[in-house]
Amino acid sequence: MTIRLLLADDQALVRGALAALLSLEPDLEVVVEVESGDRVVEAALAHRPDVALLDVEMPGLDGLSAAGLLRDAMPDCRVLMVTTFGRPGYLKQAMAAGAAGFVVKDTPAAQLADAVRRVHQGLRVVDPSLAADSLTQGDSPLTERETDVLRAAAQGGTVADIAKVLFLSEGTVRNHLSSAIGKTGARTRAEAVRVAVENGWIVPR
């Protein structure tokens, strides 16, 4: 039985390399490749893959959000996150979004192919070192709104820009930024963004 695959990664070189490596396996077939999270659900519905391999950081819709939408639109398609950034916060968000596995891109080809097969069989596959880090790290201290504000701040906009995008008053944005800075142990907005990104609490766009 051939396992049909969807690949989503914004870097064409990486996507092509993954496709080439996986296609060497006799039981794996890459049926569609996309370069952004926005195209994942549409491509999956059109090509009916068994397993979707999604990068986390992509322009537009990130892989974590795409995983959740794909789970709702096509529950029988299993999701394996394949990312450069093995951040504990990403792992927790991926599992919450319904992903069945989470591995980093420097995983040897044979192990990646095996991860695809195991996910297809209904098993959960998680990079062991990342799983250990995730257990020792607490959940994000940020509220949902603080997370939204920091994610918008990561784009480099002013308080007025953030307020406009999130439909909040500038005073409310300042309050959320101040709270987020305190919770992350940062001294500045930029430092709070860096801490949140490094811990996988926000996905930069």
What does this structure look like?
This protein is 51% helix and 14% strand. The protein has helices at residues 12-23, 40-47, 63-73, 88-96, 109-120, 128-136, 144-153, 159-166, 170-184, 189-198; strands spanning 3-8, 28-34, 51-54, 78-83, 101-104, 125-126. Strands 2-1-3-4-5-6 form a 6-stranded parallel sheet, with helices on both faces. The protein is an alpha/beta fold. 39% of the residues are buried. It has 10 helices and 6 strands; from the N terminus they run βαβαβαβαβαβααααα. It is elongated. Helix 7 (144-153) packs across helix 9 and helix 8 packs across helix 9 (170-184). The termini are far apart. Helix 5 links the parallel strand 5 and strand 6 (125-126). It folds into 2 domains: 3-136, Response regulator (Rossmann fold), CATH 3.40.50.2300; 144-198, Winged helix-like DNA-binding domain superfamily/Winged helix DNA-binding domain (Arc Repressor Mutant, subunit A), CATH 1.10.10.
